[in-house]
């Protein structure tokens, strides 16, 4: 449900949206003095990413870059002499390593010979993503998804998707490190780095206390939820624990900030959204527990959480999210894992038995 207030702001699901419509793909919208919101197209169901441009002296600082494809580079080329007024990029900040955020990072950095700012864990993960060998030769990849309950044919069908150039960013040679509490002064504004985890290893949000602005990247989104996934690189990880902890840490940012997310529209009422995100995952956890009256594979549990998965990419995200919730419940002692014929199955912890974390289990 939505309605408009006296200022013409839209209210939807407890959040307030000051702009009724986003800018067109490839266009910009000023959200504050010296701060532009750029809508960059994506060739997916989620058809855009929000980038932000911060004026700094005789140049601009870009926050995130878009995907590594010809369309992204074409949009940037058009912006250099229009929205940017012929002024150069003097730095690029990346919130995290995912391909829609860092796709043309190396291209932009090389073109303007400007530094890159991101956290150390995200820089390392980006390099791994950009230089990893063909996953089709990886026994660990096959084992991970077959243990989840995928057939050999389903696993093989993932290879063309993961081999796409879209998911291989252009990586820069060097970076400047961002850490929790790092301070950046850009165009007279002071931005403090707030680190979130779970969606990615060390996601950097940017908070300007004086002007009440939070560039949240993917850590807080207004309608959709950030993916929290277990990947083949760390199959026993507990990213949901990291993500829920990060939600609580972000409550120290005032509820009054204007949140500038990487997808959808900027919004107010941060704490309301943090409540919604926490409750969303708690509901998922309860649904899994209710479904585990008998041992079930991750693929069977995926159907409980995501009954209408469309396409291979959505399936990849859905199984990763399912495993994140399963691993959290194991670490909390609510589920146990057993292996049968090469497939992991999950059931409720027997009464009176203390379940161990997945860590260290063989």
Number of helices: 11
Low-confidence stretches: 355-362
Assigned CATH superfamily of the largest domain: Ribonuclease Z/Hydroxyacylglutathione hydrolase-like
Order of helices and strands: EEEEEEEHEHHEHHHHEEEEEHEHEHHEE
Percent helix, as a range, is: 25-40%
The main pleated sheet reads as: 7 strands, mixed
The CATH architecture of the largest domain can be named as 4-Layer Sandwich
How many domains? 2
Spatial strand arrangement across the major sheet: 4-5-6-7-8-9-10
CATH classification class of the largest domain: Alpha Beta
What structural class should be given to the helix and strand makeup? alpha+beta
Shape: globular
- Could you tell me the mean pLDDT? 93
Number of strands: 18
- CATH topology call of the largest domain: Metallo-beta-lactamase, Chain A
N-to-C CA distance: 49 Å
Radius of gyration from CA coordinates: 21 Å
Tell me the strand percentage band: 15-25%
